[in-house]
Write a structure and sequence with these properties.
This protein is α+β, with helices and mostly antiparallel strands. It folds into 6 domains: about 60 residues, Helix Hairpins; about 240 residues, DNA ligase/mRNA capping enzyme (D-amino Acid Aminotransferase, Chain A, domain 1, 2-Layer Sandwich), CATH 3.30.470; about 80 residues, Nucleic acid-binding proteins (OB fold (Dihydrolipoamide Acetyltransferase, E2P)), CATH 2.40.50.140; about 80 residues, 5' to 3' exonuclease, C-terminal subdomain (DNA polymerase, domain 1, Orthogonal Bundle); about 70 residues, DNA polymerase, domain 1; about 70 residues, Rossmann fold (3-Layer(aba) Sandwich), CATH 3.40.50.10190. It has 24 helices and 20 strands. It has a 5-stranded mixed β-sheet with strand order 2-11-10-3-9. Strands 14-13-12-15-16 form a 5-stranded antiparallel β-sheet, sandwiched between helices. Strands 5-4-7-8 form a 4-stranded antiparallel β-sheet. Helix 1 runs antiparallel to helix 2 and helix 16 packs across helix 17. The longest helix has 25 residues. The protein is globular, with a radius of gyration of 30 Å. The structure holds zinc ion (ZN). Zinc ion binds next to helix 12. One of its GO terms (biological process) is DNA repair. Keywords: DNA damage, DNA repair, DNA replication, Ligase, Magnesium, Manganese, Metal-binding, NAD, Zinc.
């Protein structure tokens, strides 16, 4: 059990954390916490608030239905409050709800309507005399943003119905997965931040001020409830009515009186989830009969007659034994939780990711010997999702971020974000990562050498495995450059156990041979953050020689296709650091002459500039890649220097500008023809 002080501290921490996350999400669409983690932490907070009511805060996210929206749009009150649903995710919780229903319905038999839970943005839609009159976001549940003009851009939502009906409807604004991909691609090409998921993209799109811009986002909507009474006596009947009026209704549903079938439907939807056009995150289970619904009513926050079954990755609870720190080749110190062995998704787990120390100290508030919940994400190593505070050992000490490097004891620092350009007089934004910046840090050097000699790098096989560690340990090398000085230490090398004359000869030959390994492998081997195999090749194709790497400017990098902004920032930071510049010069002095890469040949359109606009039959990225292979410079805007505009359907301002400037406009067919016949 917690002391009152501990409970208060934990309630304060969770309240602040969740409020921040909710506000960031509603106002900017940024997800500070995963949904799963948010739900779990909110549940823990609710549990603590119930146990220690005197410590609960009035601004607890559990006391509000939503978060106050920003004043971007006029506000409108909902005719009927928009409640959220109570979440469940286990058969036990479902059965408990079933029992409660049976008790409260006193002999009436409940029938359920199960619907795929659409992962979008809830919306209230009102028709007056058959005309689309009002669309309001959920907001705080009582009132939300009036976004009628934005919602009117959705083609499948009729602006007028055949009959002059007065309707209040509920639905979800969504973005199709395919449309989400296209949108993100366009954003990335324009150098803007892509959206994290279709829901964020839908939310961000609905909040745009200009309905025309909203229209280009191609939002969708599916309705799932008719709130206005007086039509059918049951929910499914109402949905069928809505379909007959030409309204878009969520098609993924099942009516059953059997909770076992409800569970089966949940499992089916989870299995089908990835094949659906839209993202779903669970199943909504509602009482069919509207009379029964009225009888069941609502609690302060949730209707009693519905539950949201949330898809959840399997979880396991384990005890934290200790937190290990590993120092990577970039100097970043990463915490890893060592836990009591536990079964999770078919494997025995002993270690779990903690991401970084912000996660450890702020998000999780991890203490020594805490009980932790683990989940398997997409990664191989599971992650720590949350702490079970109620299991906390009395007197347990909160874990703190290390101050010095576990390998070399140098004070750790947080660097400014790569590529961040703070305004005058402002502090630059810092990275979350804690870093050892000692260039002679053994752990960093070890990681660097290992990366340098790896297959995608210099591919010096004899140095793989333990050999590079051994050489560092015996101080025969102090870093990458020293590999090329090993020839002078032949006699000492031959003394090393397991290394005879012959293997030393082989080792030195392999090192010597690596001096002319193609430039892209050397660039990869240098371990510049973000620069992987592909980026290394793109860079190598641009460079006249190794030294050219140090002369690269932002302007040069922008011209290299497919190098993202973050990568450019990291690369320029790397080449700007004196120790790295010294390393490159040292390698040159030691005789490294990497084989140079030629630009892809056969570029009949080299020097020609082209802009792409509108929706194309083929993927835009495919076109871009093909055109760049042919030598085109593909730009994001039309100017007097543009040689061609490749225009798909629904082309907008770029098409107009090209017409004004007299730039030749080609459709896809004409483009194919141009490629065949040449410039
Ligand atoms: Zn260090």
């Amino acid at each position: 059990m917690l002391t009152a002080t501990q409970a208060k501290a934990e309630i304060d921490r969770l309240t602040d954390l969740l409020s921040q996350a909710a506000s960031a999400y509603y106002n900017t669409g940024t997800a500070l916490l995963d949904d799963d983690q948010y739900d779990l932490l909110a549940g823990q907070l609710a549990e603590l608030e119930a146990l220690y009511p005197q410590a609960a805060r009035p601004d607890s996210p559990n006391r509000r239905v939503g978060t106050e929206p920003l004043d971007l749009f006029p506000k409108a009150k909902h005719q009927t409050p928009m409640l959220s649903l109570e979440n469940i995710s286990t058969p036990e919780e479902l059965l408990a709800w079933g029992e409660r229903l049976n008790k409260e319905l006193e002999g009436l038999v409940p029938v359920f309507c199960c619907e795929a839970k659409l992962d979008g943005l809830s919306i209230s839609v009102v028709y007056q005399k058959g005309k689309l009159a009002q669309a309001v976001t959920r907001g705080n549940g009582e009132q939300g943003d009036l976004v009628t003009p934005n919602l009117s851009t959705i083609p499948e939502l009729p602006l007028a119905l055949q009959e002059p009906l007065d309707l209040e409807l509920r639905g979800e604004v969504l973005l199709k997965k395919a449309q989400f991909e296209r949108l993100n691609q366009a954003l990335e090409e324009a150098g803007e931040e892509p959206f994290k998921n279709p829901r964020n993209a839908a939310a961000g799109s609905l909040r745009l001020k200009d309905p025309q811009a909203v229209a280009q986002r191609k939002l969708s909507i599916l309705l799932y409830d008719l709130v206005t009474p007086g039509f059918e006596s049951n929910h499914e009947g109402n949905l069928k009515k809505m379909e007959s009026w030409g309204l878009p209704v969520n098609p993924h549903r099942l009516v059953t009186g059997d909770l076992a079938q409800v569970l089966e439907f949940c499992a089916q939807m989870e299995a089908k989830r990835k094949d659906l056009e839209f993202e779903i995150d669970g199943v909504v289970i509602k009482i069919m009969d509207l009379g029964q619904r009225a009888r069941l009513g609502r609690t302060a926050k949730f209707p009693v007659w519905a539950r949201a079954w949330k898809f959840r990755p399997e979880r396991a609870k384990a005890q934290l034994i200790k937190v290990e720190q590993s120092v990577g080749r970039t100097g970043v110190v990463t915490p890893v939780a060592v836990v009591s062995p536990v079964e999770l998704a078919g494997t025995t787990v002993r270690r779990a990711s903690l991401h970084n120390y912000k996660q450890v100290c702020e998000v999780l508030g991890l203490h020594e010997q805490d009980s932790v919940y683990l989940v398997k994400g997409g990664d191989i190593i599971p992650k720590v999702l949350a702490v079970e505070v109620l299991d906390r050992v009395p007197g347990a000490v909160p874990l703190e971020a290390p101050v010095v490097c576990p390998s070399c004891a140098t004070a750790l620092t947080r660097l400014p974000k790569a590529g961040s350009k703070p305004k005058e007089g402002q502090e630059p934004e810092l990275e979350v990562d804690l870093r050892c910046v000692n260039p002679a840090c053994p752990a960093v050097l070890d990681g660097q050498v290992e990366h340098f000699v790896s297959k995608k790098g210099m591919d010096i096989k004899t140095l793989g495995g333990k050999m590079s560690h051994l050489l560092l340990e015996k101080r025969l090398i102090g870093g990458i450059a020293d590999l090329y000085r090993l020839a002078q230490k032949r006699e000492i090398l031959e003394q090393i156990e397991g290394l005879g004359k012959l293997s030393v000869t082989k080792l030195l030959e392999a090192i010597e041979a690596s001096k002319t390994r193609p430039l892209n492998h050397l660039i990869y081997g240098l371990g510049i953050p973000q620069v992987g195999e592909k980026a290394a090749k793109l860079l190598a194709q641009e460079l006249p020689d190794l030294q050219g790497l140090l002369a690269l400017t932002e302007a040069d990098l922008v011209k290299v296709a497919n190098l993202g902004e973050v990568l450019r920032g990291q690369l320029l930071r790397w080449t700007g650091e004196e120790k790295n510049r010294a390393l490159v010069r040292e390698l040159l002095d030691l005789g490294l002459r990497p084989a140079l890469l030629e630009r892809p040949k056969n570029q009949p359109f080299a020097g020609k500039t082209l802009c792409i606009t509108g929706t194309l039959q083929e993927k835009r990225s495919d076109w871009k890649f093909r055109l760049e292979q042919l030598g085109f410079t593909v730009t994001s805007a039309v100017s007097a220097k543009t040689n061609y505009l490749l225009a798909g359907v629904e082309a907008g301002s770029k098409l107009k500008k090209a017409q004004e400037l007299g730039v030749p406009i080609l459709d896809e067919e004409a483009m194919h023809h141009l490629i065949e016949t040449g410039p």
